[in-house]
Every structure is written in C-alpha cells, then in structure tokens.
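Here is the promised in-class demo. Please do not try to memorize the tokens; focus on the logic of going from shape to residues.
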C-alpha cells in the first residue's frame, strides 16, 4: 500500500487562500483574524514601530510570510528597505499591484527551501506555527544571518510541551496543546538575548499570541 505524502507547502497555502480557509472579508486574499483584528494588530504595530524607530539608521526588514500585507503595510515607512516574502505567487502579484512604495519589494519564494533576502531584521508573524518541524528547522538554520528576529507565535496558555510535530498546512500545534519554542529541542536556536515585546490573551482558553524579539549577534 502506497502511503500518501503530504501536499507541498506551496500547494497547501494556495488552497488556503483559494478556499478562504482563514475566513473571508470580501477581498481576493485574506490572512485571517490575526492579521486584521484591531485588538491583536494595534499593540503589535505599536511594539514594532517603537523597535524600528529606536535606530538612528533605519533597518532593512525581511517579512517572511507577509500574507495579505494588512500588517506589513504599516511598517514600511519606518525601514530603509522592506522585503515582503510569501510562498503564494498569486498573492505576491496581488500585493505588488496594491501596495507601492519606493523602499518596498515583494518576493515569491519558499522560506524553507530558497535562499532568503539579506537584511538586518526578520519578521515572522504567525508563520512558523503552520510548518512541520523539518521546515521550521530549515528556516531556523538561515536566521543566524540576521541580527534581529521578531517572532510571533500562537501558543497555549501556561506550561506546554513545545515543538510537537505537525504536517505543514492550515492548522497549528495548539490542537496538540503545543506551540513553537525555537530555543528548545529540536531547534536549539542560539541567541544573545530575548525580549517579549507584546502578548495578546485570547478568550475561552484559545491560547496566547506572543511576539518575541531575539538578538542573534
């Protein structure tokens, strides 16, 4: 009996947007409540704008998994250059037509497979939580090339067993009472310093959305 292999991540994410599995706000592409609910988005933007504006010389930022760009569009003006990356080619083309700034570039690539754009700071906002441990590891191996990593993850409240395996797709580890911790096994991401920037506690024990700044070197 042949074991059916999981769909490639690119195909899965294209289906997520095509079938509007993260919801529908009457637009061609919608990245879900986490990218649009004011109670989640506004504190996140406040924290990132405060970080980005703390530098005398603006940073080059790579937004890995930019989605519909409802969040990223608010950060571009605080950067030297903003490179927005997503795996869904139609989404990238849509964003290119909708959002235009001199220091903004959209790139279509698979962050687990392809080389990443160069920059000072990586933003990963509720992206790795959808990937298998193997794909997360491939991304983590590339993060040492950046000085700052700003990671947002949806994790359970309280203590939990981190990094349980999933198949890449729409879902996250929360269903297994788990969440990503890049500093824990099997990833063991090495950083100089970590600082929690913001957290949002969801109602009805649906976990916490936590944004952490890692200083890598």
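The designed amino acids, position by position:
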């Amino acid at each position: 009996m042949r074991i059916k292999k999981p769909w490639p991540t690119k195909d899965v994410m294209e289906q997520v947007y095509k079938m509007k599995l993260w919801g529908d706000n009457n637009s061609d592409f919608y990245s879900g409540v986490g990218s649009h609910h004011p109670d989640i988005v506004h504190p996140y933007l406040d924290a990132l704008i405060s970080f980005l504006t703390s530098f005398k010389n603006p940073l080059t930022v790579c937004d890995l998994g930019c989605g519909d760009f409802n969040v990223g569009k608010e950060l571009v003006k605080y950067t030297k250059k903003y490179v927005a990356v997503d795996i869904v080619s139609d989404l990238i083309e849509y964003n290119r037509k909708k959002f235009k700034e001199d220091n903004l570039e959209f790139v279509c690539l698979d962050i687990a497979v392809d080389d990443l754009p160069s920059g000072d700071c990586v933003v990963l906002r509720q992206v790795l939580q959808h990937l298998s441990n193997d794909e997360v590891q491939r991304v983590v191996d590339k993060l040492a090339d950046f000085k700052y990593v700003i990671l947002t993850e949806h994790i359970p409240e309280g203590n939990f067993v981190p990094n349980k395996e999933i198949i890449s797709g729409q879902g996250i580890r929360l269903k297994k009472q788990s969440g990503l911790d890049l500093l824990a096994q099997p990833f063991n991401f090495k950083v100089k310093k970590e600082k929690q920037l913001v957290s949002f506690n969801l109602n009805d024990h649906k976990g916490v959305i936590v944004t952490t700044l890692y200083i890598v070197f």
